[in-house]
Amino acid sequence: MKKSQEILGLPVFSIVDGRKLGQVKDLVINPEEGKVDFILVSNGSWYVGARVLPFKAVMGVGEHAVTTESENQLATINDTSSANSLLQRNIEVKGNRVLTNKGNLVGVVSEYEIDEETGKLVRLEYKTAADESKIEVVEAENVLTFGTDVIVIKEQTGSTPPPVLSSESKEVAANVGSDGANLFKERQKQFLVGKSVIQDIKDADGNVIIPEGTVVTEEICDLAESKGKFVELSQCAK
To answer: Does the pTM exceed 0.70?
Structure first.
């Protein structure tokens, strides 16, 4: 099993000629099947030079590199309708909220693991809503929906009762609609303010909108949100 963070940033090599084709920029999730369908490969010019590698064409995901047979396995985003469609749906796993099918908000995904042979998501790790320093794990078989706004999981009957939430989290859990989403996002912004960005964040045209080393402020959060990069900011602020 591999955590997503162990794959992101790895170089991608062609086995045929031993040449570096780029590096892993992102993992493209198929929410219906709960697996990685494509690896987004960048050659340095984000989106301008980005291509996709079907996960079925991956020969290996090792400690130091991802391998594929040849460069012919890669295609541009616009030439791969299924990859383009998945990217447009903007399904994120890390940074997304975890909600039970009984309506209890339990936390925010901080990491996930995949089976490097099949691309299937195996388990999710999430920071609990009651205590962000506490990490809980949910097996992917208990995930009902990978959604744009929330990831829905089965609430286990007879299990430990949901954690006692802070007054703010209770308000979020009681209002999982648009008001609740806004409240939760404000909480995330407060958590990010004061942290530093560890890599450049670019817009869809490849322009750097938040440089590496930037200290996050509320204005930076608003900028990232307006460009559809708030989830990426939450992942890149340390």
So the answer is: no
